[in-house]
Write a structure and sequence with these properties.
Enzyme class: hydrolase
CATH topology of the largest domain: 2-enoyl-CoA Hydratase, Chain A, domain 1
Protein name: Protease-4
Family: Belongs to the peptidase S49 family.
CATH class of the largest domain: Alpha Beta
Number of strands: 9
Keywords: Hydrolase, Membrane, Protease, Serine protease, Transmembrane, Transmembrane helix
GO molecular function, one term: peptidase activity
Largest sheet: 9 strands, mixed
CATH superfamily of the largest domain: 2-enoyl-CoA Hydratase, Chain A, domain 1
Oligomer: single chain
Shape: flat
Order of helices and strands: HEHEHEHEEHHHEHEHEHHE
CATH architecture of the largest domain: Alpha-Beta Complex
Number of domains: 2
Helix content: 40-55%
């Protein structure tokens, strides 16, 4: 009797383990099926629309950096036989000069194969305008902000702050201009001259792009490249853009280049940033707030005010939102 009871208990336990195992398998299968259905349904429309003839739209927004994902997207657009024309939608105050250069070159490669038009939203300044001139036609709103052609280099001098808190930084280097200028000492005249030479060289390159792409003579390009910004109406008068309007004007120009006006405009969207990257950005903003003596809850406001500009490094071509145009004079 005892043996039979023990055997029954063992059998029930085995049965429960089997049932539990198959329940887990069933749940996993159901989960994978739901994931597959989601991926198919969420991606099918984009895949189908990008596989049939269409007009590609790509956005360049915010602070411009050398964005590998955007560069890959532009390369794919250029190589896609389904793309018959391209609208580059720009809303940017600028960013790093190298980032603008990289995107400029990518847009020019597309323009060698198919018609490309820029459609300016609120702002296409500095490196943002650099990207606009890479297209073969620029459309902007009457109240858009355009221009700020120029380059700058900024660095903080915290030497007085260090003196007040009793910190002295000793530096041993191989030559006087190594690692100059730096945060810890006022820049020497030689260091300022070195940076100025570098800025003027990049500035001349930027002016050359505008001169070539907008069909200006050198004097005309220089007259507009003093860091000034213009409304869309002023920009049209100065021939910095080609037409006033929105996306419909861009589509009209593409139609004039032989693009079928019945084609659908499909936005090629960026791949979503990783959670790790997002967390890193948030951590950086929290650290900045702490250094400024602000509560962590102020990081949202801090990000709205500064964006990525606090973390730009090297030569930049960017318009300051305080309304003061910047550029090499």
């Amino acid at each position: 009797m005892m043996a039979n009871t023990a055997d029954a208990i063992i059998d029930r336990r085995k049965l429960r383990r089997k049932v539990t195992f198959w329940r887990i398998v069933a749940l996993l299968v159901a989960a994978f099926a739901l994931i597959a259905i989601y991926l198919i349904t969420s991606g099918s429309e984009g895949y189908t629309s990008k596989s049939v003839p269409h007009i590609a739209k790509v956005r360049v927004e915010g602070t411009i950096l050398e964005d590998e994902e955007l560069l890959k997207r532009l390369k794919d657009i250029g190589e896609s036989d389904a793309v018959k024309g391209v609208i580059v939608s720009i809303d940017s105050p600028g960013g790093t000069t190298a980032g603008g250069e990289a995107i400029y070159e990518s847009v020019r490669k597309i323009a060698e194969k198919k018609p490309v038009v820029a459609q300016v939203g609120t702002l296409a300044a500095s490196a943002g305008y650099m990207i606009a001139v890479a297209t073969d036609h620029i459309v902007a709103r009457q109240s858009s902000i355009v221009g700020s052609i120029g380059v700058l280099f900024q660095y903080p001098d915290i030497s007085e702050l260090l003196t007040k808190v009793g910190v002295k930084v000793e530096t041993i280097k191989s030559s006087p201009l190594k690692a100059e200028p730096n945060f810890f000492n006022p820049a020497s005249d030689e260091a300022k001259a070195m940076i100025h030479r570098m800025i003027i060289d990049s500035y001349n390159w930027f002016v050359g792009l505008v001169e070539d792409r907008r069909k200006f003579n050198h004097e005309q390009a220089l007259a507009l490249a003093d860091g000034s910004v213009f409304t869309g109406r002023q920009a049209l008068s100065n021939k910095l853009i080609d037409a006033l309007g929105g996306e419909e004007k861009a589509l009209e120009w593409l139609e004039g280049k032989g693009v079928d006006p019945k084609l659908k405009v499909v936005e090629w969207k960026p791949v979503e940033k990783s959670t790790f990257g997002s967390l890193f950005s948030q951590s950086a903003m929290k650290m900045a707030a702490k250094l400024l003596g602000l509560p962590e809850t102020s990081t949202g406001v801090l990000h709205e005010i500064t964006g990525d500009r606090m973390f730009l490094d090297g030569l930049v071509s960017v318009w300051h939102v305080d309304g003061k145009p910047v550029g090499a004079q």
